[in-house]
Amino acid sequence: MNAPFALSSETVSIADLRDPGEVSRIEGFVAQQEGSIFHRPAWLGAVERGTGHRAAGIVAGKCGNITGWLPLSDVHSPLFGRALISSGFAVGGGPLAVSDATSHRLCRAAEELALRTSSSAIELRGPGAPPEWHCRNDTHCGFETRLAEDDEAQLLAVPRKQRAEIRKSLKTEFEVMIGTGETSRADHYRVYAASVHALGTPVFPRSLFDAVLDAFGSAADILTIRHQGVAVASVLSLYHGGAVMPYWGGGTFAARVLRANERMYFELMLHARRKGCDSFDFGRSKTGSGPYSYKKNWGFEPQPLTYCSWTAPGQEPRDLSPANGAYSAKIELWKRLPLALANRVGPFIARGLA
User: Which residues form the BioF2-like acetyltransferase domain (predicted)?
Assistant: First the structure.
């Protein structure tokens, strides 16, 4: 009697993201597994072009088929050290695999890669880590809901108090602009930079936004609200899997009085439905924060997000959260910097805040 053939074992290796064929296979696997936009090699590539952080990743395979994928950005900052992030400048990521065992193999391989590259930590913006890694689901929540079938139903889907704010915004003569050209990009960056400066946060380099827009084509755009010819609110949104995600957005000081942010998000809901989207992903917010409450006011139910991390032996855990008390004085100081100076220095610092 002949002995049965042994099943091929699963292999794990560093992905070659310079090989178009390898990238295409991984993109196909992400689509098949219904991964997020942050799992896509295209996201890693945009981050690399926009910030200089090398796109990397670990792929698992068996019998010629991909069984798992862990996207990684190799983030190296003189201020914040070196870490492997899944995925850089993202709110999602982590291992995408056909089984828990494969997820754990990917994470083990990431540990080895971190030690070889002198990275002090690995951060997963998602679940799937081995049990001894540090995982939490009490720090951030995601917010997503279905879009309504028409404009009036969309307005009525918003709770009464927030709906009243939107109705007031609809009475203001705003100009709504949607595009990806230079005017849209420049307006967005000016507004976004002013918005994060008011929060005490360094602004990301504009090259990151440009790289994302260039990489994703019709799957990314900018919606800007202008009042009397001046941009007062603007958001760069991503489209993936039937959902729109307003990702990098904000408003100027005048936006609050004008209720421009309310108009911006409502117009984005209408625009997204016209593009064929059926859900609105309001992104993540820190649990209990102001943005967390703002999204609840829109009728979104918070869903806890699981984030996991690994720290190299002998290293301190990496914590770059604005809620970390070590940064509170720096945040207040940053708010007092002149905006022009903050915009000049900010991108150098923010490159490390992946």
Answer: 161-296
